[in-house]
């Protein structure tokens, strides 16, 4: 009978610096300052690696446990974009090892007490669209280096406790500071404290209510429900329109769209119609 001393070991590093190590060997392995444990319920499917710009892909499958990757952390997005490295290692001499995969966690799904995570190779970023799109609406993101708006300004950001909430998607406030209706539409809601700390959602609707109340509706429900009294932050939204940039933010000098660009109908219209 032929035996092998090769095992697989992989480490995950979250964006907050937490590092976990896993191995399919039946004992602990230690190298690079990381302890790779066999009792954390993680396994990887066969790795597919391509040449050139082909996307490497695989999956990590594991059990949700309090000692390693928890459902709460997954739902809070704390593992989004975690950096992953996978080695083949001789468990009798861990100095004899080979790095076979380096990338990050992609889409994560969960069911029946387990999770499944897509592994994305380093070439994944090269498939992102490059260059600038010429479009009437702004290409910048509110508050980024192109936009230059300071989102910490009192007129653009509001911190307050959670009041009445429905399904983690509808937030009702009996009283609300004097912001115009729809001020936070297209903005973001971030949870700052409690079990759901770190979660955020895009705001779909911002509706004023009689008596000074407010209804904030998210596009999708938060993965974990904030409790009444937990602190949230609302950030003003931008609809990417030049008029909004000028009147709402007073920032038209940094507008990154092309509001005078002719529409598609103009391009296909007969020449006589173009000149009136």
TrEMBL record:
Residues 182-265 form the Bacteriophage phiJL001 Gp84 C-terminal domain. InterPro entries: Phage_phiJL001_Gp84 (IPR011928), Phage_phiJL001_Gp84_C (IPR018964). Signal peptide: none annotated. It comes from the Bacteria. Pfam families: Phage_BR0599, Phage_phiJL001_Gp84_N. This is DUF2163 domain-containing protein.
């Amino acid at each position: 009978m032929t035996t092998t001393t090769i095992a697989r070991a992989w480490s995950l590093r979250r964006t907050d610096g937490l590092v976990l190590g896993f191995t399919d060997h039946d004992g602990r392995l230690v190298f690079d300052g990381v302890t790779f444990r066999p009792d954390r319920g993680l396994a990887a499917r066969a790795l597919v690696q391509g040449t050139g710009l082909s996307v490497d892909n695989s999956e990590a499958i594991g059990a949700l446990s309090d000692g390693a990757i928890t459902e709460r952390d997954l739902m809070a997005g704390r593992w989004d974009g975690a950096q992953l490295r996978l080695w083949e290692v001789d468990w009798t001499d861990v100095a004899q090892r080979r790095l076979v995969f380096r990338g990050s966690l992609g889409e994560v799904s969960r069911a029946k007490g387990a999770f499944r995570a897509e592994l994305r190779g380093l070439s994944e970023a090269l498939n992102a669209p490059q260059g600038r799109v010429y479009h009437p609406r702004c290409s910048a993101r509110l508050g980024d280096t192109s936009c230059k708006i300071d989102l910490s300004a009192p007129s653009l950001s509001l911190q307050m406790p959670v009041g009445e909430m429905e399904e983690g998607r509808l937030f009702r406030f009996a009283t609300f500071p004097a912001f115009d209706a729809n001020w936070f539409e297209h903005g973001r809601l971030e949870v700052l404290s409690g079990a759901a700390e770190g979660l955020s959602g895009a705001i779909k609707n911002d509706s004023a209510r009689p008596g000074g109340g407010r209804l904030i509706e998210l596009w999708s429900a938060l993965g974990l429900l904030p409790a009444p009294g937990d602190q949230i932050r609302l950030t003003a939204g931008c609809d990417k329109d030049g008029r909004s940039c000028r009147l709402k933010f007073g920032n038209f000098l940094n507008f990154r769209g092309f509001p005078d660009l002719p529409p598609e109908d103009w391009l296909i219209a007969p020449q006589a119609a173009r000149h009136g």
